[in-house]
């Protein structure tokens, strides 16, 4: 059965429609990416799936006992609030030092347990948020624009980590992307949202869909860029760069390809 499913989902704010007639589902192990312009209802959809917002019309169904790990678009922490990474990971439920150490190593930021949250780089911060989400041993990870503010190598590095998490845990991944033209190459489906679902399918299919090109084709010829990491070169040199943080992009940006060669099936 699907982990989460919506039927005819519609939401309105102050009488104005934000989402209309959205039929959505995601099953175990899937990676689904949602793209759309600002104001298209991406974050509203996420809040409805999480149960934070009640639909104006339609329904949201979740598998009984579903465990959800959530990584927000941003999390503001007051610079005057002293809170270490280990303490942050123990909110609201206390975690053992061993558990914290294991999950920190899993997301590639081991050794930062005593670092203040406000002292982390952007890439480190996002990985700590992912670590916190993984502590719930989720059936599905919902990531709301998790790479916003990261550079291209940082985005690729984070996407690769998410792919590894899916492979190791079998968790489904629902990713909202702020970049209209960049999705994880491992995405099983891409959904183009603009108040309603304009088109959906594999990245290759969506890149050729007229609806996608009409909405997002300016400046790129309508092509989706698919992040792909190649293993025919090494990145050891990045450690020689002063103050370089691997979490912000140790993989380099050269591993992306464009999907404009894909077939035109809708």
Characterise this structure.
With 266 residues, this protein is an alpha/beta fold. The chain has one domain: P-loop containing nucleotide triphosphate hydrolases (Rossmann fold, 3-Layer(aba) Sandwich). 26% of the residues lie in helices and 25% in strands. The protein has helices at 42-50, 85-89, 97-106, 122-134, 152-169, 203-208, 210-216, and strands at residues 4-13, 16-26, 31-35, 57-62, 68-71, 140-144, 172-177, 182-184, 189-193, 197-201, 225-227, 256-258. A hairpin with a 2-residue loop joins strand 1 (4-13) and strand 2. The radius of gyration is 19 Å and the shape is globular. Residues 218-223, 227-246 and 249-266 have low confidence and may be disordered.
SSE succession: EEEHEEHHHEHEEEEHHEE
According to CATH, what is the class?
Answer: Alpha Beta
How much helix, percentage-wise, in residues?
A: 25-40%
CATH architecture: 3-Layer(aba) Sandwich
Oligomeric state of the chains present here? single chain
Number of helices: 7
Summed over residues and divided by their number, the pLDDT gives a mean of 81
End-to-end span in angstroms? 25 Å
Helix/strand-derived category reads alpha/beta
Q: List the domain count as a whole number.
A: 1
CATH superfamily: P-loop containing nucleotide triphosphate hydrolases
The stretches of 5 or more residues where confidence is low (pLDDT under 50) are: 218-223, 227-246, 249-266
Radius of gyration (Å): 19 Å
For the largest beta-sheet, the strand count, sense and barrel status come to: 6 strands, mixed
Indicate the CATH topology. Answer: Rossmann fold
Beta-strand residue fraction: 15-25%
* Main sheet: strand order: 5-6-7-3-9-10
Strand tally is 12
The best one-word shape is globular
């Amino acid at each position: 059965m699907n982990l989460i499913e919506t039927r005819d989902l519609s939401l309105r704010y102050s009488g104005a429609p934000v989402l209309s007639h959205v039929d959505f589902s995601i099953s175990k192990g899937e990676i689904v990416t949602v793209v759309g312009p600002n104001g298209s209802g991406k974050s509203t959809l996420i809040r409805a799936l999480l149960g934070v917002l009640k639909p104006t019309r339609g329904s949201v169904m979740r598998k009984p006992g579903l465990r959800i790990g959530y990584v927000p678009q941003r999390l503001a922490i007051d610079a005057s609030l002293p809170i270490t990474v280990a303490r942050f990971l123990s909110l609201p439920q206390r975690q053992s030092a061993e558990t914290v150490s294991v999950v920190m190593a899993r997301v590639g930021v081991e050794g930062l347990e005593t670092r203040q949250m406000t002292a982390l780089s952007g890439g480190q911060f996002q990985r700590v948020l992912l670590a916190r989400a993984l502590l719930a041993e989720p059936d599905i990870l919902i990531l709301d624009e998790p790479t916003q503010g990261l550079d291209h190598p940082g985005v690729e590095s984070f996407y690769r980590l998410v792919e590894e998490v899916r492979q190791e845990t079998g968790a489904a991944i629902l990713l909202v992307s702020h970049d209209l033209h960049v999705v994880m190459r491992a995405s099983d489906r891409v959904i183009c949202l603009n108040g309603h679902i304009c088109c959906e399918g594999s990245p290759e299919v969506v890149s050729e869909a007229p609806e996608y090109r009409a909405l997002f084709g300016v400046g790129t010829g309508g092509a989706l860029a698919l992040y792909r990491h190649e293993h025919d070169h090494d990145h050891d040199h990045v450690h020689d760069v002063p103050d370089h943080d691997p979490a912000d992009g140790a993989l380099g940006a050269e591993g992306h390809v464009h999907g404009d060669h894909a077939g035109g099936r809708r």
